[in-house]
């Protein structure tokens, strides 16, 4: 990817998605499941956004070419390997070219093993009930899903 020093997180996420889709297409990686911690990117792909229309159109086109491509949300805690790689890449400013790694770099080994072992993480979030009273809630992320609230309202 080209250098993008003065961009927004959303633009960077969209460009990364587009580049990943191109790599998947070039390497015939189908079916494809994409997880992102950016709800905004998912919303933009699903609903469009005027400022990013060219990139969104390109992503949609690539997703259609790849067939049954699934785009879903994941919490940052579930995306630790990607998060660590992105942070390291940003420090080194390696945007001018795409790198394909045969093995994970040493600095992500702990996160890779946590992923392999299905480690779950606590995530504290501030929520509000229907009476607008703030409450603290904990959700678990990882390979298990625990509902935050029951179905009763």
From TrEMBL:
<dbReference type="GO" id="GO:0003676">
    <property type="term" value="F:nucleic acid binding"/>
</dbReference>
<protein>
    <recommendedName>
        <fullName>RNase H type-1 domain-containing protein</fullName>
    </recommendedName>
</protein>
<dbReference type="InterPro" id="IPR044730">
    <property type="entry name" value="RNase_H-like_dom_plant"/>
</dbReference>
<dbReference type="InterPro" id="IPR053151">
    <property type="entry name" value="RNase_H-like"/>
</dbReference>
<dbReference type="InterPro" id="IPR002156">
    <property type="entry name" value="RNaseH_domain"/>
</dbReference>
<feature type="domain" description="RNase H type-1">
    <location>
        <begin position="5"/>
        <end position="88"/>
    </location>
</feature>
<dbReference type="InterPro" id="IPR036397">
    <property type="entry name" value="RNaseH_sf"/>
</dbReference>
<dbReference type="InterPro" id="IPR012337">
    <property type="entry name" value="RNaseH-like_sf"/>
</dbReference>
<dbReference type="GO" id="GO:0004523">
    <property type="term" value="F:RNA-DNA hybrid ribonuclease activity"/>
</dbReference>
<dbReference type="Pfam" id="PF13456">
    <property type="entry name" value="RVT_3"/>
</dbReference>
């Amino acid at each position: 990817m080209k250098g993008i020093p003065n961009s927004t997180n959303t633009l960077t996420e969209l460009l990364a998605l587009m580049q990943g889709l191109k790599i998947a297409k070039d390497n015939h990686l189908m079916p494809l499941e994409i997880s992102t911690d950016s709800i905004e990117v998912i919303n933009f792909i699903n609903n469009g956004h005027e400022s990013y229309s060219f990139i969104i159109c390109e992503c949609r086109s690539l997703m259609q070419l790849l067939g049954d491509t699934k785009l879903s949300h994941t919490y940052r805690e579930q995306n630790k390997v990607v998060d660590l790689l992105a942070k390291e890449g940003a420090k080194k400013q390696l945007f001018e070219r795409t790198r394909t790694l045969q093995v994970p770099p040493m600095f992500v080994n702990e996160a890779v093993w946590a992923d392999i072992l299905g480690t779950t993480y606590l995530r504290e979030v501030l929520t509000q009930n229907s009476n607008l009273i703030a409450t603290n809630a904990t959700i678990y992320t990882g390979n298990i899903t625990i509902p935050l609230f029951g179905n009763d309202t």
